[in-house]
Amino acid sequence: MTEKLVLHEFAASGNCYKVRLTAALLGIPIERREYDILKGETRTPEFLEEVNPNGRIPVLQIGDRFIPESNAACYYLATGSELIPADRFDSADMLRWMFWEQYNHEPNIATLRFWIHEIGIDNLTEVQRALVPGKREGGNAALKLMEDHLSRHDWLVADRVSLADVCLFAYTHVAGDADFRLSDYPHVSKWIGRFQAQPNYLPISA
Ligand SMILES: N[C@@H](CCC(=O)N[C@@H](CS)C(=O)NCC(=O)O)C(=O)O
Known about the structure:
The protein is α+β, with helices and mostly antiparallel strands. The protein is 51% helix and 8% strand. It has a four-stranded mixed beta sheet with strand order 2-1-3-4. The longest helix is centred in the middle third of the chain and has 32 residues, at 88-119. The two termini are 23 Å apart.
């Protein structure tokens, strides 16, 4: 990669971590620029105009172009690497898990983690509080689906590590921050251990 890569991020976010983790696993250097989302720093006119009209991070900057959406940014970094299966079915299956992550996993587990870990349960609005039971149920359903799959496979796709594992690892391994009990999901817990044993693994706190 010849153009400079800059990750616009809030480091504690699992979505931003996915992008750092993909880069670390592949040995790709990236610069990091931190925004405080609790202070609305991704909602300024400058950010909306120059970085992401959707007002959110992560955004991967490639030279003077910008890719918002975590899984798209990971895909950019991993294109041409062993994290993307060469087989046509397997690469579509990888995308299946990444789209599923954004629809069934992240909106439940990541949102609850943000509410509990960053905002604090006592500071939630009435609307947010009313959504907690549904998100708890949805998050457990997502972990159960992963548990069933991982009871039969070491990795999510084609029995080898792929971008699907990277994107799902990000919020799954910190689901305890959102008061999910990972010990109820032993195969998911073993998969987390396998993932962390990879060369170049980068913890979320790094
Ligand atoms: N689908 C997006 C979600 C991005 C997102 O929700 N980012 C949050 C942090 S994880 C954010 O920027 N929140 C600040 C805000 O909405 O003002 C992705 O995967 O990148």
